[in-house]
Amino acid sequence: MSYSVSFIGTPEAIKRALDKTSAEMQGQSKAEFDAVKPALEIILDQQVNNGVIQLIANGHASFTVGEGVNPEKTYGTCHVEVKALGDLLVE
Predict the structure, then answer these.
(1) Alpha helices in the chain (DSSP H)
(2) pLDDT tens digits along 82-91
């Protein structure tokens, strides 16, 4: 399963978008996303007075196929990129 998100905004606005994204997801992709979401929020909390932030995060996991309701994870990866873009200028 996999997930991919990309947002530009203030850290608080991005955290709200992460909540909304999680609420809209289902199944194993939601489970994978929800597992990394707390770490993404911690990273965003470190962006103090940096203005507008860009967050890109994606991940993928593979699981055993077979009997049972709890397949075993056999592979997992997550890539996160955070950039401080500075102040947003509006006239």
Answers:
(1) 11-24, 27-45
(2) 999 988 777 7
How buried is residue 63: exposed, middle or buried, by Cβ count under 10 Å (0-12/13-18/19+)?
middle
Name the residue ranges covered by the structural domains of the chain.
2-86
pLDDT tens column, 27-75: 888 889 999 999 999 999 999 888 899 999 999 988 777 666 777 778 8
Rounded to a whole number, what is the distance in angstroms from the first to the last CA of the chain?
43
Residue 32: which of 80, 81, 82, 73 has the closest Cα?
A: 73
Report the alpha-carbon distance of residue 47 to residue 58 in Å, rounded.
Answer: 20
Inter-residue contact 40 to 54 (CB < 8 Å): no
